[in-house]
Amino acid sequence: MSGTWFTETLHGSYGQGFEVRATLFHEKTEFQELAIYDTERLGRVLVLDGAIQTTEADEFYYHEMIAHPPILAHGEAGRVLIIGGGDGGALREVLRHPGVEQVTMVEIDPKVTELCRQYLPRLSAGAFDDPRARLIFADGVKYVAETDERFDVMIVDSTDPIGPAVALFEDPFYRGCRRVLGARGILVRQAGVPFFQRDEYVTTYRKLAAAFRDVAFTMVSVPTYCGGAMALAWASDDAANRTRAVDDLAAGYAAAGLATRYYTPWVQRASFALPAFMREALGL
């Protein structure tokens, strides 16, 4: 091995590393430690508080699966709220749906968006300049507690519950989420890698179940989120959203003119199947 290596140790005594060709940015913002590296295998990599957030090589796995399932399941999503997502990847995928009239993105750390636009422009691919996009730099917990606006789909694209994201995993936030969603509204959020983060997905399930009638998870395997498949929590008061027929999803996919690299309507339906160890932990 040669050169400088970055090692992520998010999961304590277990880690993963990659060789760094260049450090493009590394600084402590008002909210967190932010680094952007250039690598041979993964392209450019965003790291927050020592944890890999996204890479140019595999970001589409995550961003497609956090954006397209709720929008296609809802079927009439015109207004979408993104909490976090400062890199712009989720925003990019949401705006690929012509039926979406407005996307409000609430990001707490303006430096994330500023630096991702500068160093990782492929992630947003011009999404921040779309007239349907409205960017607000604010606390997401406060926003959902105070706004008078209502949304059809809500995506919580946050870090793990450390640093500024801790409050995005608590009961007051989920009550606020339910308040701003319409009757058929859908919430999707990242909930950790179950192999390493049992407490994260179990606690997320219990807290969401206190606010919503129908709670589940979809699963997606993102190569740089070490530990296997990641859980994306799904919450709604309308269980029909989760069980939408694959033919209906496929019709919406075709009508939107989507061309995806990971997502398909069949992947969406299959992604709700949970392994036995998760079902046992959740008491299902």
Descriptive keywords:
Rossmann fold; five-stranded antiparallel sheet; Spermidine Synthase, Chain: A, domain 2; globular
Any overview of this molecule?
With about 280 residues, the chain is α/β, with parallel strands linked by helices. It has 2 domains: about 5-55, Spermidine Synthase, Chain: A, domain 2 (Roll); about 60-280, Rossmann fold. Helix content is about 30%, strand content about 30%. It has 10 helices and 12 strands. The protein has helices at about 60-75, 90-95, 110-120, 120-125, 140-145, 170-180, 200-210, 245-255, 265-270, 275-280; strands spanning about 5-10, 15-30, 35-40, 45-50, 50-55, 80-85, 100-105, 135, 150-155, 180-190, 215-220, 230-235. Strands 8-7-6-9-10-12-11 form a 7-stranded mixed β-sheet, with helices on both faces. Helix 8 crosses helix 9 (about 265-270). The radius of gyration is 18 Å and the shape is globular. It starts with a strand and ends with a helix. The model has no long low-confidence stretch (mean pLDDT about 95).
Specify Rg, calculated over alpha carbons. Answer: 18 Å
What fraction of residues sit in β-strands?
25-35%
Low-confidence stretches: none
Number of strands: 12
* Overall morphology: globular
- Give the name of the CATH superfamily of the largest domain: Vaccinia Virus protein VP39
List the helices and strands and how they pair.
Elements: E1 4-11, E2 14-28, E3 33-39, E4 43-48, E5 51-55, H1 59-74, E6 79-84, H2 89-94, E7 102-107, H3 110-119, H4 121-124, E8 133-137, H5 140-146, E9 151-157, H6 171-180, E10 181-190, H7 198-209, E11 214-220, E12 230-236, H8 246-255, H9 265-271, H10 276-282
Parallel strand pairs: 6-7, 6-9, 7-8, 9-10
Antiparallel strand pairs: 1-2, 2-3, 3-4, 4-5, 10-12, 11-12
Helix pairs in contact: 5-6, 8-9
